[in-house]
Amino acid sequence: MTLPKIKGIAINLSGETMIVPPLSLGALEQLQERIMKFSGDIGDRDQVATVIDAVHSALRRNYTEVTRDAVADMIGLENMNEVFEAVMDVSGLKRRALESEAATVGEAVPGN
Contact, 20 vs 55, CB < 8 A? Predict the structure, then answer.
């Protein structure tokens, strides 16, 4: 995979740390209605598809070769909410909090 171009939140996906940036405005425009209806109901196929599509759109900003099928395999019940939260971190507040925490501890933050 290529090096990330856009800042985001480092998340372990299938054993690989990937930088998940927020959605682009174009992707947000395309997915906005679905995102607004999102409740986290894993029993609803459309809700699950919304998470996969949103994460795929976000990851493609840093990893242009990643496929939707690969993203679907990377996300599980254990990390679905964390990954979707990262994608929806439009303001960057979560990312900045993680950067600040890492700086306090003296760690490097991936993707910067």
Answer: yes
End-to-end CA gap in the chain: 17
Q: SS3 helix, strand, coil % of the chain, rounded to 5?
A: 50, 10, 40
In terms of Cβ atoms closer than 10 Å to its own Cβ (0-12, 13-18, 19+), residue 58 is: buried
Domain boundaries, the chain: 9-88
> pTM of the predicted model, to two decimals?
0.77
Cβ atoms of 59 and 20 closer than 8 Å: yes
pLDDT in tens, 53-108: 999 999 999 999 999 999 999 999 888 988 998 888 865 555 666 667 666 766 55
